[in-house]
Amino acid sequence: MRQRIAVYPGSFDPITNGHLDILMRGLELVDVVIVAVAHNIEKRALFSVEERKELIRESVNGNENVIVDSFEGLLVDYVKKVNARFVIRGLRAMSDFEYEFQMASMNRNLNKDMDTIFMMTSKDYFFISSRTIKEVAGFGGCVADFVPPIVEKRLKEKFSIK
Asked: Quick one: which of 65, 59, 8 has its CA closest to 37?
């Protein structure tokens, strides 16, 4: 039987507990999830792609059903390349849905064999975004409840916070 593979794409700069929540719940639906860090030249990242991949690997504690990778270009091309059938996307608010619906529709138009699975973020994490995590951490605020311990540690190092 063919493995059910999903790609969970994003910038993950950095990965948050909200991302991990979507990832773990996604694993209940498919056999393997490939967390694909996007090379996004339009976003100025705090962590390099390699640093983000390492933070994700450490955050999933070696879960053998999670593969961490990166990609450039069109998501549909990457999905084809890794023989995935699904894309997982987390939704926090209606504004997320509008954007994600447009992207999923375009992707489906480009690749009829690909489906997008939308998952609502858990109530404990719907207000979390990587951007707000970086902002709070940058001003010395505590983000321990919102990110894995390794991410908190690396944020403190990036912002030179004792």
From this structure: 8
For the chain, list the domains and their CATH numbers: 5-124 (3.40.50.620)
**34 has which bridge partners?**
7, 67
Is 122 known to be catalytic?
no
Helix axes 149-158, 130-138, angle to 10 degrees: 50
39 is catalytic: no
Distance CA 30, CA 12 (A): 21
130 is catalytic: yes
Each residue's pLDDT expressed in tens, for the chain with a length of 162 residues = 779 999 999 999 999 999 999 999 999 999 999 999 998 767 789 999 999 999 999 999 989 999 999 999 999 999 999 999 999 999 987 777 888 999 999 999 999 999 999 999 999 998 899 999 999 999 999 999 999 999 999 999 999 865
- 92 belongs to the catalytic site: yes
The one catalytic residue among 53, 59, 89, 130: 130
Separation of alpha carbons 89 and 121, rounded Å: 10
pTM comes to: 0.94
